[in-house]
Amino acid sequence: MLCCLYVDLHFILLCSLSGDVQIVRELVTNLLTVLFINVFSVHCLGFSNLFILILQHIEDLTQEKFSLQRALEASHTLAESLAAENSSLTDSYNQQRSIVNRLKSDMESLQEEIKAQLDGAQDVVELWPAMQ
User: Fold this and answer.
1) CA–CA gap between residue 31 and residue 59 (Å, rounded)
2) Which residues form a coiled coil (predicted)?
């Protein structure tokens, strides 16, 4: 019974983390019903011992819930930080790509200009003997 109680309480905790209040209410109601029906069949534990164990287990689950919430908040903070860093790196990459594209364009223009000057020089070299 305690094993089932643990599983049920753990499931209730997970549902409460998701924020589904209706499911949590139904689960708690069902769990309490089962507890009240089976509490008199527990011979080795007195009611007060069982109640103390349940309270301790609820406390443990509550602490686990808060721990999971803190971990979730830390995860969200990390995700936001990574998203900001990704955005910054993307902007930097785009700026560098723009610079590289501009330099490529400048280099192509200079290559065309050099080719034109070489063609002009070649013409002068070919005409030079005739001009002498």
Assistant:
1) 17
2) 93-120
